[in-house]
Amino acid sequence: PRPRFWHGLCNGVAAAALAWPEPHLAVDVVSPSGQTIRFHPNDVKALLAASYYWTQDMAMLGGPCTRSSLDSGRLCSMNPAALAVALVNRVGVAHRSFLLDVYPSPRSQFYAVASGRLDVRREPYPVDDTPLDDELRAQAHRLVDVTFSLQLSSTTLSPSLADRLADDDRDGTHYREVGLHAVPFVWQATLALGADGAVIGGRWTGPSEDGPDSLLFESDQPLLTDAGVLELNPGLEWKRVAALARAAAGMDDAGLPAPPP
User: Fold this and answer.
1) Phi, psi torsion values for 252, nearest 5 degrees
2) How far apart are alpha carbons 97 and 150 in whole angstroms?
3) Which residues, other chains included, contact 243 with Cβ-Cβ below 8 Å and sequence gap of 6+?
4) Percent helix, percent strand, percent coil in the chain, to nearest 5
5) With a cut of 70, which residues of the chain have pLDDT below it?
6) DSSP assignment of 53-86, as one string?
7) Do residues 131 and 87 lie in contact, with contact meaning Cβ atoms separated by under 8 Å?
8) Model pLDDT, residue 232
9) How many CA atoms lie within 13 Å of 252's alpha carbon, on the beta-carbon side?
């Protein structure tokens, strides 16, 4: 009975989690009027999620889906060639993560990639009479069957998981870290290889014959105005959010990432 589309802060949660250590300490802040306000680790996480909803440098492959159909996967799945190149180069070579939208439909749910594996199920073989787009057939020299096995970091956990005091807590300010809650996803695909072995295209196979919707590269700094406030949340001053995040993670003033001047 629920709608198949929504907008939330999953991308902000995921991007902030990649850029910052997990907040696990309560932070007391004294207001200008002298009132002490306690920020729970969940409060700090929420501020970081709102801050990282849009970052300074962003790039998307696949694009958001805007169409509904009885077979959304065929309409909205990104090309598996793009995911293969991103996974091998970004995770395998650069050792950096990215965000992946796992539902090929107007519904949107981003996760950060915790780990990923690309296995060859069948060695490269001739194109022969395999159904291919005419333009791709003119360039494809061989095909290869692969399996994507990814562990993605959940962004839909209950707030109560971060509301458990640590065993060594003395004053009600030290909480247990939630850590990684990995969600496994497996997709199968056939990739097309050019004359030089480069990956030039592909299609999803397997039981559902679909894959993720899109992937998103984000930077470790939120998008700011010249005044240092968040472009999409102008009520928040990033310098203060960053100071809270450092304190909640047990970092000193020299901790990274530091706010801009």
Assistant:
1) -85, 180
2) 12
3) 259
4) 25, 30, 50
5) 1-7, 68-72, 252-261
6) TSBSSEEEES-------TTHHHHHPPPHHHHHHH
7) no
8) 85
9) 1
* pLDDT tens by residue, 23-66: 999 999 999 999 999 999 999 999 999 999 989 988 998 877 77
Helix, strand, or coil (residue 139): coil
The 10 Å CB-count burial string (b at 16+, else e) for 19-49 is bbebbbbbbeeeeeeeeeeebbbbbbbbbbb
Its sign, for the CA torsion 88, 92, 94, 99, is: positive
> Token pair for residue 134?
């005419």
pLDDT value of residue 76: 84
d(CA 249, CA 255): 10
Other residues' Cβ atoms within 10 Å of the Cβ of residue 128: 6
- Whether this prediction's pTM lies above 0.90 is answered by no
Nearest to 53 by CA among 187, 240, 249, 241: 241
- The pair of three-digit structure tokens given for residue 202, joined into one six-digit string: 């592909």
17: enclosing H helix or E strand: helix 10-19
- Residue 34 in 3-state DSSP? coil
Do 61 and 82 meet the contact criterion of CB atoms below 8 Å apart? yes
Among the listed residues 233, 258, 259, 261, the one whose alpha carbon sits nearest the alpha carbon of residue 53: 233
160-169 — which CB contacts under 8 Å span 24+ positions?
Answer: 162/24, 162/41, 162/42, 162/45, 163/40, 163/42, 166/24
